[in-house]
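User: Thanks for the earlier help. One more: PadR family transcriptional regulator. Can you show the sequence and predicted structure together?

Assistant: Of course, both are below.
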Amino acid sequence: MHLVAQHPFAYYGALMALEHAILVSLAEKSATGYDLARRFDASIGYFWQASHQQIYKVLGRMERAGWVEFETVPQDGRPDKKVYVLTSAGRDELGAWTSKATPVEYLRSEFAVKLRALPFGNATAIVEDVRTRRRVHEERLAYYAESAARFYPDPDALRPDQMGAWLVLRGGMLAEETALAWCDEILQRLAPEETDR
């Protein structure tokens, strides 16, 4: 079974609009709404989640704002598809957004609060929660490592247009490594018989 969980550290405080995540994705490559939704499922969604319905709704808003436009591409035996591209106004907005300082993202973790409740709650269930989280982080790290090996086999030879994506991927890998180390430390403290084997 494929385990899905929140990013190891869920943040609040940064109010990035979904529009900006879509602008970044379209700056990298023009796409249909379906293609964008798949990108969010496969990569962007690990850092900024959005449902397919939200993406289509926001694309309509961005089109009305003049940030994107679409080309209609006929398809045999299927409805025509809309391929969205960034307009100059969309590129200007992306430039303006990247020029603003990003607010500090403060940690907010339900799991951390649950650990604080350890003396008062179900310690066995909390340990099982840690085991589950550890498997998820291990799986996520393996996914990131596979992506790094596939798309960026030589990080020292990155092109300028690859640098941002690589740095985000690297940040994800470091976050997962940290989350794994934290899970291991918790298990060492709470279930040492497992880690001493």
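User: Great, one quick takeaway?

Assistant: The domain at 15-99 is CATH 1.10.10.10 (Arc Repressor Mutant, subunit A).
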